[in-house]
Amino acid sequence: xxxxxxxxxxxxxxxxxxxxxxxxxxxxxxxxxxxxxxxxxxxxxxxxxxxxxxxxxxxxxxxxxxxxxxxxxxxxxxxxxxxxxxxxxxxxxxxxxxxxxxxxxxxxxxxxxxxxxxxxxxxxxxxxxxxxxxxxxxxxxxxxxxxxxxxxxxxxxxxxxxxxxxxxxxxxxxxxxxxxxxxxxxxxxxxxxxxxxxxxxxxxxxxxxxxxxxxxxxxxxxxxxxxxxxxxxxxxxxxxxxxxxxxxxxxxxxxxxxxxxxxxxxxxxxxxxxxxxxxxxxxxxxxxxxxxxxxxxxxxxxxxxxxxxxxxxxx
Amino acid sequence: xxxxxxxxxxxxxxxxxxxxxxxxxxxxxxxxxxxxxxxxxxxxxxxxxxxxxxxxxxxxxxxxxxxxxxxxxxxxxxxxxxxxxxxxxxxxxxxxxxxxxxxxxxxxxxxxxxxxxxxxxxxxxxxxxxxxxxxxxxxxxxxxxxxxxxxxxxxxxxxxxxxxxxxxxxxxxxxxxxxxxxxxxxxxxxxxxxxxxxxxxxxxxxxxxxxxxxxxxxxxxxxxxxxxxxxxxxxxxxxxxxxxxxxxxxxxxxxxxxxxxxxxxxxxxxxxxxxxxxxxxxxxxxxxxxxxxxxxxxxxxxxxxxxxxxxxxxxxxxxxxxxx
Lengths: 315, 324
Prior knowledge:
The complex is a heterodimer of chains A (about 325) and B (about 325). Chain A contains 12 helices and 2 strands; from the N terminus they run ααααααββαααααα. Chain A has helices at about 5-10, 10-15, 20-45, 80-120, 120-135, 140-150, 175-185, 190-200, 205-215, 220-255, 265-275, 280-310, and strands at about 155-160, 170-175. Chain B is an alpha/beta fold. Chain B has a single domain, classed as 3-Layer(aba) Sandwich (Rossmann fold), CATH 3.40.50.300. Chain B is built from 11 helices and 12 strands. In chain B, β9 and β10 form a beta hairpin. Chain B is globular. The interface of A and B includes residues 4, 205, 209, 212 and 215 of A.
């Protein structure tokens, strides 16, 4: 428990000291920067456009280039630069993954707090509902949700008019919004149990009784006494669950119910490259590696943060 | 009118046949500005009684089975939730046993005191008032200390901060539930001295719950001794400690270690406090009582006023074997 004290004051420095957390953070920062800068790199002609055939994208026989040579990661069956598509895919995967994680965290923390704090019938109902959600495999549930939500590819351009140079131009497809909602709605039950268990322990702590003895209401105790003490756990859980949301998003993309084409996503790149896997393995390996690296990075960061929050867990 | 009057309070844990009575017919009364010491072993029901005053027991498992708790004339057990929040802090404040656990570990102490102010005196929720309160409880350099986290303070300082928090809403009654048990001896004396001084300065009443008879003598005007959910003896502190009448109180007094006596072993009370729900018939103390008679296991003795202001739950208090 001692390690919880002053978590925020002391949390930034140990991230760099903890090797796991540092490795994860470096990978993610690198991916994040590349993803952010992608449109700018395209405009400066350093990166090919991700959704258009490149002029030299196919050789004279109309076949894609393998990895290496003029294209670092080769081109795909339509002559599009795979490197560019992987980087643009990171924009989709990271933003959808993080938005889904936020959705899942908000739902999971709220349900866990209410169930743990009030207990009794509310706890019974909320926990049975949570378990019901857990029994259905995530991917099936996501497909069912996708059937309910509209994933036609209408585009909403989100770039501020006051910014002449569109560095942060981010085209959020309607599809992306529904995908992160789908993934978020599917991933929250995993958090509930951990949060609830923590709340059950925290609400018996004497400082909660002390707050109550001073006339604090239930909502004040939940928000001011219990929630701040949960934050270290929530942060670790959130980072770890981002790995799940990204995997699920890739899975949906692979099945063709993710963010609609021609926007590149890692999952759809794998499914598009699959028919050519024997002759052009880079079409599957490159996006696959991107998924593996990202998921690994989130897990490393999560594990590292867990060690920082609770040093007894160090192995 | 007494500030606090508890009448025939009965508290159960659990319902129906499984109900265990933790507090059985406790009656107490406390005048404004006075100090009452509530003494007893662990499990005697003294903390449960204390928490009941602001209805702080978790229900379930606790059930307020009967009696009244009149706080400034209003029955706490009949108040609605919003009124209860006004009473908590506003009329009665608590200081608990573990100062380290009673402070929220993630907030600075100044912020926590300010929070207590916001609940009852929002107009006074300022840095200046926080500093004044910290000064009042004797914390040096309050301007810098208010920015400390709880774990950066010693146990004694933490308890002073807890007292400052409890005093922030300006309560009429301070319930101190074993405020010194977790502190070492020199700090204990300081905290008790602080409480005595604050009582004088602010004119509030104190209900001091403790199992340490030495502390009671220093500060209390009256003392009530609890055993197995009942009050067994009650009276003015000085008189009661000089001349305990109930065999349990006498045994408690004997088991206080003294430096003067050249004893090889400490005196103890044989046996244990009976388990909840397994109270012996008749007098609840008789299995451990050194002067028990066969009749003691028959009928439960009443709490009787045997001398002016001296109440004892033992019909044989005047017998020669107890006058030792």
